[in-house]
Amino acid sequence: GIHTTQGLGFAEATDCLCPTDTYTLNGTTCIACGDGADCAGFGAEPKSLPGYHLAAVTDSGLSIFECTSNHFRCPGGVVDTCAPGRQGTACGECLPNMMSR
Fold first, then answer.
1. Cα 78 to the center of its chain, rounded Å
2. In this predicted model, what pLDDT tens digit does every residue of 14-64 receive, in sequence order?
3. Contacts of 77 (CB under 8 A, 6+ apart)
4. How much is the pLDDT for 29?
5. Do residues 30 and 3 touch, judged by C-beta distance below 8 A?
6. d(Cα 15, Cα 39) in Å, to the nearest integer?
7. How far apart are CA 75 and CA 60, in angstroms?
8. Dihedral (C-alpha) 25, 27, 28, 33: value to the nearest 10 degrees?
9. Which of 17, 26, 49, 73 is the most buried (most CB within 10 A)?
10. 4 falls in which pLDDT band (50, 70, 90)?
11. How far is residue 98's CA from residue 23's CA, in Å, rounded to a whole number?
């Protein structure tokens, strides 16, 4: 992917980062975020949007799932963010000693 800066006047090659809607793990390759994700770019960690669960960030793409049965289970955020008492893929499981309402 193509690197850019956050504005004009940057002089160092290290100022060139992946733009909005992309992320990088190795500092050189910019990877597109895709549906259900929020990538601010410029070194920021990818996050899922509300209603989606970000299971993993890899160099081949984001592992992200839409929470179709109950969007409130997936508030969005960094890897493995689920609503309180929830866990697993698409936050579809209750934590031990918890039960679904």
1. 6
2. 667 888 999 988 877 889 999 999 999 888 999 999 999 999 998 888 999
3. 47, 48, 54
4. 85
5. yes
6. 18
7. 24
8. 40
9. 73
10. low
11. 35
Residue 82 CB partners (closer than 8 Å, separation 6+): 53, 73, 74, 75, 88, 91
Could you tell me the pTM of the whole model?
A: 0.81
Q: Distance between CA 32 and CA 20 in Å, rounded?
A: 9
Q: Closest Cα to residue 49, out of 71, 69, 32?
A: 71
The rounded distance, in Å, linking the Cα atoms of 55 and 66 is: 11
Q: What was the pLDDT predicted at 60? A: 86
For tokens 């839409």, the residue is 66
**Cβ atoms of residues 65 and 76 within 8 Å:** no
Gyration radius of the chain's alpha carbons: 16
Within its chain, how far is the Cα of 17 from the centroid? 17
Angle, alpha carbons 75-79-82 (nearest 5°)? 35
Sign of CA dihedral 42, 48, 49, 50: negative
